[in-house]
Amino acid sequence: MADFQRLAPEARKHLRQGPGVWVRLKLDPWLLILLLAIMSFGLIVLYSGSGASEAAVQKQLIRYGVALLGMVIITQINLRLVQRWMPLLYVGGVLLLVAVLLFGVGAKGAQRWLSIPGLPRFQPSEIMKLVVPLTIAWYLASRPRPPHLTHVLVSMVLVAMPVLLIAKQPDLGTSLLIGCSGIFVIFFAGLLWRYVVAAMVLGAAALPLLWIGMRPYQQQRVITFLDPESDPLGAGWNIIQSKIAIGSGGVNGKGWLQGTQSHLDFLPETHTDFIVAVLAEEFGLVGVCALLSLYFLVLIRGLMIAGQAAHPFDRMLAASLTLTFFVYVVVNIGMVSGVLPVVGVPLPLVSYGGTSAVTLMASLGLLMSIHARRPQRT
Amino acid sequence: MPWSKMDTQRKELDQFNSRLWLALLLIVLVFSGLVARLVYLQIWQYDHYVTESDDNRQQLQAVAPTRGLIYDTKGQLLAGNRASHNLTLVPERLPGGRKGVDAALADLAQVVSVDADDIKRFKRRMNQPRRPYSPVALKFQLNETEIAQITVNQHRFPGVRIVPELVRYYPLDDGFVHALGYVGRINDRELAKLDATNYSATHHVGKLGLERFYESELHGTVGHQTVETNARGRVLQVLNRLEPVPGRDLTLFLDAQLQQQAAQLLKGKRGAIVAIDPNTGGVLAMASAPSYGANQFVTGISRANYQALRESDDLPLFNRALRGRYPPASTVKPVISLAGIDTGIIARNYSIWDPGFYQLTEGGRLYRDWKEGGHGRVDMHKSIVESVDTYYYTISHIMGNEPMANYLAKFGLGQVTIADQPEATKAVLPTKQWKRINRNASWFPGDSLNMGIGQGFLSATPTQLATMAMVLANKGEWHQIRMIKAIDGEAVNKVSDLGRKDPVQPANVSLNRPSDWNKVHAAMVDVMHGKKGTGRRSGANSSYKMAGKTGTAQVLGIKQDDTYDAAKIAERFRDHGLYIGWAPAKDPVIAIAVIIENGGGGSSAAAPLARKMFDARMLSLDSTPPTGVKDDG
After folding, report:
1. 3-class secondary-structure state, position B94
2. Which pLDDT score is estimated for A264?
3. Which residues contact B330 (CB under 8 A, 6 or more apart)?
């Protein structure tokens, strides 16, 4: 104890002396520790959710490695430079989305992948998860804030184009996330409350019209969303089974690898979108709350970074990325626990799969980059 | 920095920060909501969900819809359903669970014979994605003894069940498969494409023909029931049930009597008969020989039987009526004549002197007529009645490719005309471009000569030829060629009524001088009833007049100076016999195409069969009240 007291001022002095390793790497240790914690927890659940498959865990580990590397690279990028290239990036991204609709490949009736010779197959919609908030932030940063109505409308069009193109693939989950990320930027640009209220009223008024305009099969789908028991063999099956999994987990859970719902194959997609049901079944309420706490801390950190950023572009971007992360968590857990409709959104940093991990880490990398270039308090 | 700008920046920052606090509030509220939901599920409703997860006594089962039936035009059942008892295992309920499968199979083998093939397929099915506790079929169509053996020993086999299932059954079977197609077990490839929910209780899917084309109508909609079972999987009670919606019933134009007659006529031969009702475009009969039984495909044909069918030289699996590409030979002559006179290239009274051959250039290759010595002076009427090749060599040389190709297309050649037989092909209607692309050569005069007598590159399916006969009989009027007459008793005039794509159908053929139809009709009547008509033996002794055209397609090129001797050439190199025609000559009720492979001449091999079909159609019409079959209005 005495030693510590003696050493502590020294350590602080060292910090004051020059930029530490974190600063030089432009990484935020808090964020990094949190996401490593989430990923480790995720891998433990994934091992169970994938049917005790070591191969799946190994594969996911490699993906995380690649994603972390990507994050470190993104962090080094100066956002002032990115800003300049935004229009080009946006146009390129939209063109790629059009290309997906024309020549894309995919499975199960959805066309999401683009396969360009010489490049690995990729999903242009994933790139747009970053490009859209960047574009809107770029557009509104150089205009008066609170934004004028025309600028708001232009921003809405810029958001709507990729969102509609992705919804057509069809990939409702991704288009929802991208739409949110764009709208968040507009909101944080200081959108006047009267516009916010007007938009909400308009949206509410449009719902019945939308319902009338829908085809019977689309209406059927909405009914299934609202009442999964009406289609217990199809979409409802997943929700019914995942609710049983969560509910039967109780407070403490059935224990790691002991989940009957997941291991007897009642539960669908146990390693991807529905992985939180495995977590809830095996680790109980305690386990889910632990994960939620980790997510909560990530969000707090994100909001702090937004609050400390100086440049309007940085502020809006940081706040939007943080809230989009929040939407990920809420839509996924809300869907699996049966309070939100079934939309394909993965649980961030836990669900099996490479593409979403890479884009998520990249957005966290952007947050870190913003943080590293904040004005130093004196 | 001016104060005003500083001030707005200050204000903006304040506003931004207040929105961050708002966001934080939202996050806290929503996360609390999520936690509340989890508390509700995991603490409040814990007992409920624990029972649901623990005892799985309540099970949701999908209930398969009954497949729609297929009737002939008079209401005779062509495709129905019958019960089949299948031996199934629920791997999760076996002693030792899924790992106990091999032991359970060994035990079972003492009671009922299960071969290696069954086991292989069973394991594949078991490892496919499926609901837990759903039964996996091991053996289909158990017989009475097997059912008894297993039932008696039921206590020894937990997890083993006999499940009755309705499967397709074709009561008339032989001779109908090429018209109806068949259903078979769903395979992996189809599984990936089908709607997983709607097919969750279905094991069969239309594989071929009508069964495949009308799959979505015939299948119906799945139902489901919640059942309470004991620990061994025996159903104790049905808790609630949503009835499946059965598939829709199809009524065809097909006349079972005519179809059987056609199959009978083709027995022991290779060939096809297609008959169409010219008033509706409905297919009355569609037979291809040799044929095979469709019922064996429903429950799974044995490897040996399938091998035998596949490897037979007679190609029984091959649907000649829809896919057989034959040189139409002289059956195209009426249309070639029409092309000549309607375009004005050939005068209506044009005639030639036929020495028995034709030469493009003096001393050049001899294009022979079928009759040595020739037919003398030949005009259009005589050229059809006596099927004079030399006449067609002459006029097709004058016309060239284009008018012939145009007119043959108007009558349905070179395109798929039938709307609801997915296997139909369009054969080849050669044009100059076609030859350039496919043969990499330009169109030679000799090609026109061959085309004029329905040989060379030109080919047609029996269905196309029957279509051509229909359009000729109707004096140019088209109807959509289709099998379906009605669905659930509702008339279907076009497959687009059912949301399907109609095949592109040529417009009604209108001639510059409509009386030219009568010229062709008169000639085709004389084919059957004239003194020198090539089909006169088949037209004799009838109470009604008929019209037709025979054709004889060369299978082997005959060298210049050889005399043709059918007996010498191996059977497979004998000519194909062809016939198109309709009856009665006025107000026709049947148009037909007959093809007999290697049957020799059309007048001896094909025309007599057509005559029998005509007679059968007349008889069939007499024996039914005219309503619903044909309306003379």
Report:
1. coil
2. 60
3. B387, B389, B453, B454, B549, B550, B551, B552, B578, B602
Domain presence at residue A208: yes
* Mean pLDDT (whole number) for A367-374: 89
Please check whether residue A18 lies inside any domain of the structure: no
Question: Does A232 share its domain with A185?
Answer: no
Q: What pLDDT is recorded for position B627? A: 45
Q: Give A-chain residues touching B41 at CB under 8 angstroms.
A: 243, 246-247, 280, 337
Sorting pLDDT into bands at 50, 70 and 90, what band is B560? very low
Give a yes or no: residue A100 inside a domain: yes
Alpha-carbon distance of B549 to B527, in angstroms, equals: 6
B241 vs B285, which has greater pLDDT? B285
Check if B84 is active-site.
no
Rounded CA separation A242/A226 (Å): 16
Q: Does the beta-carbon distance from B49 to A292 stay under 8 Å?
A: no
As for how many domains chain A has, the answer is 2
Are A116 and A188 found together in one domain?
A: yes
Q: Do B39 and A334 touch (CB under 8 A)?
A: no
A147 plus A44 within the same structural domain: no
A–B CB contacts, 8 A cutoff, strictly below? 108
Token pair for A112: 């999401």
Domain assignment of residue A128, given as a range: 85-213
Looking at the fold, whether A67 and A156 belong to one and the same domain comes out as no
Q: Which two tokens stand for residue B206?
A: 């239309």
Which domains are delineated in chain B?
59-94+118-252 (3.90.1310.10), 256-622 (3.40.710.10)
What is the H or E stretch that residue B578 is in? strand B576-583
ipTM value for the complex? 0.89
Radius of gyration of chain A (CA): 22
- pTM, two decimals, is 0.65
pLDDT for residue B567: 54
My answer on whether A146 and A253 are in the same domain is: no
Final residue of a structural domain among A213, A241, A256: A213
Q: Are A58 and A125 part of one and the same domain?
A: no
CA distance A204 to A199: 9
Q: Is residue A220 part of a domain?
A: no
Q: What residues form DSSP beta bridges with B581? A: B548, B592
**HSE-CB of A57 using CA atoms within 13 angstroms:** 16
* One domain for residues A206 and A235: no
The dihedrals phi and psi of B204, each to the nearest 5 degrees, come to -125, 150
Spatial contact of B471 and B478, defined as CB atoms under 8 Å apart: yes
pLDDT of residue A334: 92
Considering chain B, what is the average pLDDT of its residues? 88
Segment B571-582 shows an average pLDDT of 89
Nearest CA in chain B to A276: B38
CB-nearest to B62 from A233, A285, A296 is A233
Instruction: Show the tokens assigned to B189.
Output: 């490839």
Are residues A52 and A151 both part of a single domain?
Answer: no
The DSSP string of B343-355 is: TTSS-TT-EEEE-
Contact with chain B for residue A249, Cβ under 8 A: yes
Q: Which of A154, A184, A213 is the last residue of a domain?
A: A213
Q: Classify B166 as helix, strand or coil.
A: strand
Select from B390, B368, B327 the least CA-distant residue to B562. B368
Residue A58 corresponds to which amino acid?
Answer: Q
Does the pLDDT of residue B231 top 70, yes or no?
Answer: no
A positions 264-303 inside 8 Å of B (CB): 264-266, 280, 284-285, 288-289, 292, 296, 299-300, 303
Residues 140-159 of A with CB under 8 A from B: 145-146
Given B84, B288, B330, B337, the catalytic residue: B330
State the Cα–Cα distance between residues B615 and B211, nearest whole angstrom: 30
Quickly tell me which residue has 């071969």 as its tokens: B115
What distance in Å separates residue B17's CA from the closest CA in chain A? Answer: 6
**Residues of A with Cβ-Cβ distance to B42 under 8 angstroms:** 246-247, 249-251, 280, 284-285
